[in-house]
Amino acid sequence: MTSRGAALVQSSPLRAAIRHAAGWPATSGLCVILLAPLLVVDVPPLLDYPNHLARAFILASLPGDAVLARFYAPHWTIIPNLALDLLALPLMRVLPVHVAGRLLIALAVLLPVLGAVAYNAVLTARKPVRWWVLASGIVAYNGCVLYGFLNFEISLGLALLLAAAWLRWRDARPVASVALAVAGALALFACHLMGLVFYFMLIGGAELAHLYPLRNGRCVGAVLARGLVLAAVAVPPVALYAASDLRHLGGDARYLALGPKLAQIMLNFTNYDRPLDMAAAMLVMAVPLSGLALRWCRVPGPAAWTIGMLSIAFIAVPSSWKGTFFIDARFAIMLGFMLFAGVVPDTFPDRIRRPVIAVLTLIFVARMTVLTTAFVSHRTDLADLRAVLAPVQPGQAIYFASVSKQEAPAYWDANPHWREIANGQRVDLHLGALALIEHRAFWPFEFDNPSQQPIETRQPYRDLAERVGEVPDRQRTIAANLCGFDDVLLLEADALPGLPDGRFRLLAQSGFAALYAVTQCQPGPSTGG
Q1: For the chain, which end, N or C, has fewer CB atoms within 10 Å of the first or last residue's CB respectively?
Q2: Each residue of 373-421: pLDDT tens digit?
Q3: What is the pLDDT of residues 261-284, one digit of tens each?
Q4: What is the value of pTM for the model shown?
Q5: In the chain, what is the straight-line distance between the N-terminal and C-terminal CA atoms, in Å?
Q6: Which helix (H) or strand (E) holds 204?
Q7: Pairing relation of β-strands 487-491 and 398-402?
C-alpha cells in the first residue's frame, strides 16, 4: 500500500466506514453461533418450554382434533402473555411442531441481542456496531432462557427495538414515532407485561434525558407536552390491563431478602458450569465499571436514566405477584442487557481493548461449547423418554412423576449435568408434555391459568389435574389416588427400585424413564394411603 493509501485508510471517515462494514458481518456471525445449539437437538432442555410447546400444539390442533378436544378448549381473552401462542399458530400450520418450536426459541435468543445492538447504534448516532454490545451474546442464553421464559425474552428484544425507533425518530418524525409506539405498546402487552414495563422505562429514560437540561424552570411546557405523549402511549395497554383477568387476582406478593435478591443478578450468566458463569460475570461487570472509572466509556443520558429506574425497580419489586414468578429476576435480566446496550466504549486504548475482546471471545466460545454439549447430551434422555412412550395411545391419561433430590441425593449428586443448570434448577420437569405433543395423551400439568394462557382444561380432566397438584415424587406416586389415569410416566426411574407390583405393571423402561400401567388405582393400606 502506498503512503497516500495508508493515509486514506487512517483518515477518520474511511476508517469509520470500514469498521461499519465489518460490524454487521460480525453481528451476523454472532447470530449464527447463537443458533447452532438449536440444530443439535429437536427439544432443547429449557424448563418450561415443552409445556408452552404443548399448549401451542393444542391450539393449532383445535377444534379439528377430536382427541385433544376432549381434554382442552380454547380460552381466548385479554391476556398479557401470548407471544408464543400468537406466533406458533401460523408456524405450526406449515411446519413440524419441533421445527416451529425451535424457531420461537431462536427468536427469544436473538431478539434481545439484536435489540441491544440497534439501541446502542441509535444511542451513538448510528456509528459502527460497537465491540462491547456484541459481547451481549455472552448473556443470550441466560437463566430466564434456560427456565423457558420465552415470552419474556421475546418482549425484551422487541422493547429494545421499539426504544431504538423512539430514540431515532421521536423528534424527527413525532407523529409516526408516537403511532409506532402505541402499536408497539399493544404488541408488548400481548407478548409479556414485563416487556411493556421495560419499554416504558426505555422511552421514559429518553424523555427524561431530553428534559433534564431544561430543569432550570423553563421546562414546564415541555414536561406537559412530553408527558401527554407518554400518557397517550400508555392509555391503550393500561385499558387492556384493566379489562383483563390479571387485574382481579389477589395480592400474593412475596419479597426476597436483599442478599438473595442481589444474587438474582447472576441469572444473567447462569449456564451449566458455575465457575465459568462466575468468570463471565466478573469480566462483564469489570469492563464497564473500570471503563467508566477511567473515562474510557460512557453511559448516554437515555440509557443512564433507564438503568437508574431499573435498579430502583429491581430492589423494590417483589419476587412473585399475581401468579407471576421471578419478577425481580426479570428486572435483573433487563439490567444485564442494558449493561451492553447502554454503555459506549468510546476511548478504550487499543492495548486494553484488544486483550479484553480476546478474553470476552474466549468466555463466549467456552459458554457456547458447554451449552451445546449439554444440549447434545440431552438427546440421550429424549431417546429414553420416547422409547418408553411408544405404547401410549391417543386419548390415554398419563400420570407424570419424577424422583426428587430428597429421595435420591447420591443419584442427583452424580447426575448428568444437563438435567439441571448451574444454580441447581432442574430442567426436566415438563418433559412429560411430549406425551401430549407426540401421542395426543392427557398429562396433568399443562399451563392453563386463565389469566395467563388461552386454553382451559375440560372436566373431568381438570379434576384429575387439580388432584395431582405439583409434580409428585416416587413415594407420593406410590400412595396416590390414580383413578382416571391409565399409565404412570416416571423420570429418573434408574435412581430407585421400580414402582411396586401391587399397583403398577412395568410396560417399558429405557435409561432414566419408565412407563407403568396402573393396575390398582386406589392405594391400599400398605402404601400409606
Answers
A1: N
A2: 999 999 999 999 999 999 999 999 999 999 999 999 999 988 778 899 9
A3: 999 999 999 999 999 999 999 999
A4: 0.93
A5: 86
A6: helix 193-211
A7: parallel
